[in-house]
Amino acid sequence: MKVIVAQQCGFCHGVKNAISMAEKILAKEKDVYSLGPIIHNKDEVQRLAKKGLKTVNRVEEIPSGTVLIRSHGAAPEQMAKLKEKKLNIVDATCVLVKRVQQIAAELERDGYKVVVIGDENHPEVGAVVGSCGETIVIADESDLHKLPENDRLGIVCQTTQSPQYFSKMLCAIAKKGFSELKVINTLCKEAIKRQQSAVELCKQVDVMFVLGGLESANTHKLAELCKKVNKQTFHLQNWNELDKNILPGKNVVGITAGASTPEWIIAEFAENLTAKD
Amino acid sequence: MKVIVAQQCGFCHGVKNAISMAEKILAKEKDVYSLGPIIHNKDEVQRLAKKGLKTVNRVEEIPSGTVLIRSHGAAPEQMAKLKEKKLNIVDATCVLVKRVQQIAAELERDGYKVVVIGDENHPEVGAVVGSCGETIVIADESDLHKLPENDRLGIVCQTTQSPQYFSKMLCAIAKKGFSELKVINTLCKEAIKRQQSAVELCKQVDVMFVLGGLESANTHKLAELCKKVNKQTFHLQNWNELDKNILPGKNVVGITAGASTPEWIIAEFAENLTAKD
Questions:
Q1: Listed residue (A1, A3, A5) closest to A211, CA to CA
Q2: Interface residues on A facing B, Cβ-Cβ cutoff 8 A
Q3: B167–A179: do the CB atoms touch at under 8 Å?
Q4: What is the pLDDT of residues B15-51, one digit of tens each?
Q5: Which of A94, A265, B9, B196 suits A255 as a labelling partner, its CA being 20 to 30 A distant?
Q6: Looking at the partner chain, which of A163, A179, A181 has a beta carbon nearest the beta carbon of B177?
């Protein structure tokens, strides 16, 4: 069995930075909290929990100490609460995610109705929404009714979405009608390269494994794109989740992984596959 | 035979204004020139020629006197030449067309690459192109290769195009990729209403006549939209062009007309149809 790992996959700069910041603080401090899971990967969250990182979902759950803002960012409202509690804030928000928040706020200041294309329930989108007074989140065509008629729309996109999805939603918005559109391309170029790399690999393999947390938006997007090209695509969190009955008859196997999937999960998966051969 | 004239058709505000300005000047002056045909309608140009309006295509052809800038506008370069010649300039540029020129110049000043969606050979588009240092005209998908990669694009549209065409071209541009899009909706609302009114009428008639000059972009657009709904659509300049063999068996006849088609051409056509019955 030939095992090919996508040229570009696994931790992105933003995630690497957040993990490294967490490890540095954990090495010298005791009370370290992450506001929401540091990344959408259970295994990595568990690994850091063993080193002392406490994951909480609300500011109210943090009594004192240091709070780490994960790469998805936090809404200004949450940041204000953290400051009020006089906690030591370590901000690991991805620079690209922070840029979306800033752009959205600027668009609103310039009089545009802010439109965020993406998943309303994703923390990154939540933080962008929190950066503005009023926003409209468009996840798909069923949300188009939320748009005002003939208005000035300032549009940004969740960083980990695909260019195909972004332009499809822009088309739908343009067709609905507007007086002015200001659209800033806020897609993460690294995420796009991973998507392209995964789709390319997909075409050459008998089966494709997309490794990553079930709550990871970018892993879902990778799996979705791969499935369009190769129906034998499986989104798994790790080696344990693999149904070994899939393997017989498969000569070439592809592996890719989301931006929040640690290197050790990818390596373990690839090594176990090779060993089974 | 039932003859129905579209509720909204014929001269638009911009054209009405240009004709009325021409008539006022012709009433008191002798040397009156129009830089390019005042409107894209041969019959109306001839009517005004009889009153003394001389149509020229180049500034160099005007020795002295008054020059009328038609509703399509003129490029700043031409305006400068006219001023240099110390001609008396009467500007009948449609306010919406002038707005497109101003917006395009502003977009360029703000660092955007200016993109004009429309027909490169139409004088309105020519005047917009002339208002900027550099522009890219996109008429259809075959022009997309002209767009720079990952750039900041400032987009306007020829005023008389349809919203369907505008959004279709925006989709194509969005799919091509960009770093920022600033799109100003420069479509003429009156033109859109005429298009809607024509399409509605089309559905109720056995045959549809779209009256207007063969060089009139908005008349072409009307005919194109009507043809999609009713194959029995004919673009004619006037009553003389009608092939009378079309009429037998037609019970309900629809008439619409471009923004540069004078009322008397529409009335003549409708009256002759009714008289034939």
A1: A5
A2: 150, 163, 166-167, 170-171, 174-175, 177-185
A3: no
A4: 999 999 999 999 999 999 999 999 888 889 999 999 9
A5: A94
A6: A163
The length of chain B, given as a count of residues: 277
Kind plus residue range of the DSSP H or E element containing A136? strand A135-138
| Residue B51 CB coordination number (10 Å) | 11
Q: Which amino acid is at B212?
A: G
DSSP H stretches of helix in chain A: 13-28, 42-50, 76-84, 95-109, 123-130, 163-176, 189-202, 217-229, 263-276
Angle between helices A123-130 and A76-84 (to 10 degrees): 80
Q: How far apart are CA B241 and CA B69, in angstroms?
A: 30
Crossing angle between the packed helical segments B163-176 and A163-176, to the nearest 10 degrees: 160
Preferred mutation among A161, A170, A173, A184 to probe B, highest tally of B CBs within 10 A = A170
pTM: 0.85
Using DSSP bridges, classify how beta strands A152-157 and A135-138 pair: parallel, antiparallel or unpaired: unpaired
Q: How far is A66 from A127, CA to CA, in rounded Å?
A: 20
Structure tokens at A231: 């129906």
Contacts of B51 (CB under 8 A, 6+ apart): B23, B26
B73 vs A10: CA distance, rounded Å:
56
Where would I find the beta strands (DSSP E) of B83-215? 88-91, 113-117, 135-138, 152-157, 180-184, 207-211
Whether A183 and B183 lie within 8 Å, measured CB to CB: yes
Secondary structure class of A107 (helix, strand, coil): helix
Sheet holding B88-91, edge to edge: B53-56, B32-35, B66-69, B88-91
**For A16-69, how does the pLDDT look when each residue is reduced to its tens digit (9 = 90+)?**
999 999 999 999 999 999 999 998 888 899 999 999 999 999 999 999 999 999
Could you state, in chain order, the average pLDDT of each consecutive group of 10 residues for chain A (277 residues)? 93 93 95 93 92 95 95 90 95 94 97 97 92 95 95 96 95 95 96 93 97 91 95 96 93 95 94 86
Q: Do B181 and A183 touch (CB under 8 A)?
A: yes
- Residue B148, helix vs strand vs coil: coil
**Residue of B163, B175, B183 lying closest to A181 (CB–CB):** B183
CB contact under 8 A, A185 and B179: yes
Q: Could you give phi then psi for residue B108, rounded to 5 degrees?
A: -65, -40
Q: Which residues of A touch B182 (CB under 8 A)?
A: 180-183
Marked catalytic residue, from A23, A84, A108, A124: A124
Q: And the tokens for B25?
A: 């000047």
Cβ-count burial B200-226 (b if 16+ within 10 Å, e if not): ebbeebbbbbbbbbebbbbbbbbbebb
ipTM over 0.85: no
Q: Which residues of B touch A187 (CB under 8 A)?
A: none
